[in-house]
Design a protein that fits this description.
Layout (H helix, E strand, L loop, with lengths): L10 E12 L2 E12 L3 E5 L6 H8 L7 E6 L2 E2 L4 H7 E4 L11 H11 L4 H14 L15 H13 L5 E5 L7 H14 L4 E5 L3 H7 L2 E6 L2 E6 L1 H8 L1 E9 L4 H9 L6 E7 L2 E9 L6 H9 L4 E9 L2 H8 L13
Parallel strand pairs: 3-8, 3-9, 6-7, 7-8
Antiparallel strand pairs: 1-2, 1-4, 4-5, 9-10, 11-13, 11-14, 12-13
């Protein structure tokens, strides 16, 4: 039977009150979010945060304890076959038959996905070109590099032209050139499909995602576009190198009075004193005001350097997961 196309709807993934208990451990706690058609959404969280469990509930692999997920309008519990037809899924560890050639595997996948035989060859050729597999179609999968095996995984996820593509660590094992290729492919997919991806490479999330959903200890802690999230939660930092001498002692108090400065840290190294000023990006200190402070002080400014938080910095501040600080004694 051919793939049944889902009804056109703006929201293709709808999670409401999604909760999953394993014994007395709550892995996912009342999670709700939507993903719309044409959106590329990064679903992020540290190890143990609940993101993999959530993704498995979305693809009908496991059932929620409470709450529900609808995928392309179909409930994952009562209509799981339609859900699975609507989704292309790339797990972190892609299950591949290594003794098969790439062509044999894609033919096998095409048959499982119920693609009509008169359409299968063209679809395999198209997806091989999209994923950069045309040159290795006759080779056994087991002889391919990890990067090429990842491409085969991407091809099997997309061979049936699904409305929704769910990717768990799609950049695993890829070199920088291949990462760029996958980034381009995800952007292309996002033009008319829903893409939900999970990864620890946050620079790629900033490059390809329209929105990020961050989960920590089973709960959603952020849901916003990357730029807005950095603006709301990120920090600006000014590093000042000042020559030791007259006026340095009073400088901390002067700098703390500048609008937007939340903290001033001092570190003396040799003949210099280093000042680190921090403030929120949304209410950042003005560099001109910092420079003005030195006009009324005998202290000599050697250099000033400005930086601001990345998505990775914000992610680290908002999440805990199973992170352990090196050198900190366990309590």
């Amino acid at each position: 039977m051919a793939k049944q196309k889902s009804k056109k709807s703006n929201v293709l993934i709808e999670a409401r009150g999604l909760t999953k208990w394993y014994g007395d451990v709550c892995a996912v706690d009342n999670v709700s979010f939507n993903v719309k058609r044409g959106e590329v959404v990064g679903f992020l969280g540290p190890n143990g945060a609940g993101k993999t469990t959530t993704m498995k509930m979305i693809i009908s692999f496991i059932a929620p304890t409470s709450g529900y997920v609808k995928v392309a309008g179909h409930d994952t519990l009562t209509d799981s076959m339609h859900v699975r037809r609507s989704i292309g899924y790339l797990p972190e560890e892609t299950p591949l038959y290594r003794d098969m050639s790439v062509l044999e595997f894609l033919r096998f996948t095409s048959e499982i996905r119920e693609i009509p035989k008169d359409e299968s060859s063209k679809r395999i050729g198209d997806i091989a070109k999209i994923c950069g597999l045309s040159a290795v179609m006759g080779r056994p999968i087991g002889e391919l590099s990890k990067g090429y095996r990842q491409r085969v995984g991407l091809a099997q996820a997309m061979i049936h032209d699904p409305d929704i593509v769910i990717l768990d660590e799609p950049w695993t094992g890829l070199d920088p050139n291949q990462i760029t290729d996958v980034r381009r492919l995800i952007k292309e997919l996002g033009k008319d499909k829903t893409v939900l991806l999970s990864t620890h490479i946050l620079a790629e999330v900033e490059a390809v995602c329209d929105r990020v959903v961050i989960i920590d200890r089973g709960k959603i802690v952020a849901d916003d576009i990357p730029e807005a999230l950095i603006e709301k939660k990120g920090e600006v930092r000014y590093n000042l190198r000042v020559q030791n001498g007259e006026g340095v002692g009073a400088l901390k108090g002067t700098l703390q009075k500048i609008s937007g400065v939340e903290s001033v840290e001092i570190d003396k190294i040799g003949e210099e004193t280093l000042f680190a000023l921090t403030g929120k990006i949304g209410n950042a200190p003005n560099e001109r005001e910092i420079l003005e402070a030195f006009k009324s002080s005998p202290a000599k400014l050697i250099s000033i350097r400005h930086s601001k938080s990345s998505l990775e910095d914000v992610f680290r501040e908002m999440t805990v997961g199973d992170r352990v600080e090196i050198g900190v004694k366990a309590s």
